[in-house]
Design brief:
The complex is a heterodimer of chains A (165) and B (425). Helix content of chain A is 43%, strand content 11%. Chain A is of the alpha+beta class. In chain B, strands 3-2-1-4 form a four-stranded parallel β-sheet, with helices on both faces. Chain B has three domains: 231 residues, NADH-ubiquinone oxidoreductase 51kDa subunit (Rossmann fold, 3-Layer(aba) Sandwich), CATH 3.40.50.11540; 89 residues, Ubiquitin-like (UB roll) (Roll); 92 residues, de novo design (two linked rop proteins). Classes of the chains: A alpha+beta (165), B alpha/beta (425).
Amino acid sequence: MSLQNEIHFTSERLQEIDVLVKKYPGKRSALLPVLHMAQKDFGYLSMAAQQLVADTLNLRLMVVREVVTFYTMFREKPCGTYLLEVCTNAGCMLNGANELLAHMTESLGIEVGETTADGMFTVTEVECAGACGGAPVVQINNEYHEKVDATYMDAFITRVSGGQS
Amino acid sequence: MISSDPKQVKAICFDRIHLENQTSLAVAKKNGAYKFLPTVLKDFDKERIVDEVKKSGLRGRGGAGFPTGLKWSFVPRNTGKPTYLLCNADEGEPGTFKDRDIMRFDPHLLIEGMLMSGFALGVKDAYIYIRGEFLHEANVLDAAIEEAYAANLLGENILGTDFSMNLTVHRGAGAYICGEETALIESLEGRPGRPRFKPPFPAVEGFYRCPTVVNNVETLATIPAILEFGGDWHAAIGVPNNTGMKIFSVSGHVNKPGNYEVPMGTSLKTLIEEYCGGLQHGTVPKVIIPGGSSTPWLLAEHYDTPLTYDAMMKAGSMLGSGAIIVMDETADVIALTRRLTHFYAHESCGQCTPCREGTGWLERVMTRVENGQGCEEDLTVLHDAATHMAGRTICALADGAAAPILSLLKHFPDEVRARLMEKAA
């Protein structure tokens, strides 16, 4: 079965994938890296994107689906321009992460896991980010921000919103 | 500079970590990186390297504490199959954040450690499996590896010898279980990270069913110093059977959380009071989780316990990865336990029934208890579920999930019962 693909990798990407595949004893090892590339290129892993990855690596769609749904970093839905991932595990929790998360969702008017109506911000709760010395930790589009408090997040949100809060 | 006198050693993995621009090859070389590599590649016998590592007493820094040299010696020779070296950089145990600092501040130390280890094991292809969230660290490593290739420190005929090795950084995608070495291998093969049944162990049948060594970042980063100064030098640091320096990641209710590399055998109290600026509130910790969230809790009475694998075991816990989560008198240990049950339920790979179902039970019941909606029977359910999960699954995730529950019930039964009564009150 093949879905009608409306999306494609650029020729540069395809070259990059060719190089990548050769680094492993088996082609399938390139699946996670290629999914990261697809998510970067297309914003999220739509069914069409997953089919594209399957076709590119000559894998069955189900093999790709199994991996996409297993790993939390792979998203099957679009998220906001700014993905705000708040760690609330032990080290962060002991240093105010729950209060920070509550402040963020309240000030943005959304629940955890939701995106603001203007498509700017998605707030999610994540498991230990591995930076507990800088608790609480917030990843903003996969960049680590440490010792984050409400003031810091408010300033960030105001700044990227163009000065409006 | 690392002192050749074991008594004077201040750091091994973090020796050059605070130097500026240490990520650049030129700077790293100026500061001593790869200095000893030519000697190893040209003059060292492979068996001798394994022997030096055995002699050093180095135990795996990822959590299990298994002797590294012994692990290496399990790799069969002359199987006709390639041997792979995988660096476990999936740092995900709640509380652990040490490997990240090695990778982002001194990537060449890890590369050098992998080169020496790869040489000893006859490896042609090595991989660093790094957790997907560490994008910055992966980029730092990629840049360092590119520079190393350009300088003939990686690739074909390294430094003019007949040793060739490739090194590839491979990002995971958000799955705690991939830190378990066989799950890591599954993931590196492009599959969901579901641990394999052992035996066969990876040393015999690992990556693509070939002999494979999986070592933690800190373990590999210790190898260059061991080979330069000798196994006996390393064995003279720390205490017998628990040798060398160890990085401790300290988080929670301390004034100066962070990574501290100290000699093995330093006491918990010394680390927290002298290095971490003491507790945020009060003078006595309520709970110390010494080796990451999966290890049993210690109490104030254990404050003087030396930081060694053996002493932690004797105190009823584990040194684990050296991730110390400190809670002072203000900590809500019930809320913390509930949060950890959520973590394990979320991260269970689902292939073993006791873990898949048990972690869900623990979370649901702990949520009731935390909210003051629990009952006395819930404590029995928690205890039974936890004791029936541990040791009955392919990997140790279920044991990790059981640890906080059993610790909570053992050490704070009154606090838990008081919470149960809240609903009635």
